[in-house]
Amino acid sequence: MLQTAGVSFDRAVMSGGGARSPQWPQMFADCLGVPITVAEAQETGALGAAIGAGVGVGQFADYEQGIAAMTVAKKEFLPNQKMKNHYEMRFQAFLEMTNMMRRFWTTLKNSGDKT
């Protein structure tokens, strides 16, 4: 779906609460079809602010240098093609259900009491 919107990437980094689970990063890797790296840092908002400050005061030449110096990867999750197909089939079923429900909600809306 992202590719149809013109977005392309060959890897992604996941942080925050969901990244602490071994299931969520693997599901993202499987669904997106790219390796997912989980960041070691748990407070990535504060880390991002520190990197920005480092760039601002000249500690780092640019954000890329700051990121390289201050971030550490904890684990990488590789995509599983069988699971990508598994999730894709379920996503297609979800889209079909959404279309059916859209018709249902439109019918319900149009048949409601207008008083």
Question: What's a quick, concise take on this entry?
Answer:
One of its GO terms (molecular function) is kinase activity. With 115 residues, the protein is mainly alpha-helical.
Description:
The chain is mostly helical and 115 residues long. It has two domains: 7-79, no CATH class; 81-115. It contains four helices and three strands; from the N terminus they run E-H-E-H-H-E-H. It has a three-stranded mixed beta sheet, covered by helices on one side. Helix 1 links the parallel strand 1 (12-14) and strand 2 (36-39). The longest helix has 30 residues, at 81-110. The protein is elongated and about 65 Å long. The model has no long low-confidence stretch (mean pLDDT 91). Pfam families: FGGY_C.
Summarize the helices and strands and which ones pair or pack.
Layout: E1 12-14, H1 23-32, E2 36-39, H2 44-56, H3 63-70, E3 73-77, H4 81-110
Parallel strand pairs: 1-2
Antiparallel strand pairs: 2-3
Helix pairs in contact: 1-4, 2-3
InterPro entries: ATPase_NBD (IPR043129), FGGY_C (IPR018485), FGGY_Carb_Kinase (IPR050406)
Domain Carbohydrate kinase FGGY C-terminal: 3-55
GO molecular function, one term: kinase activity
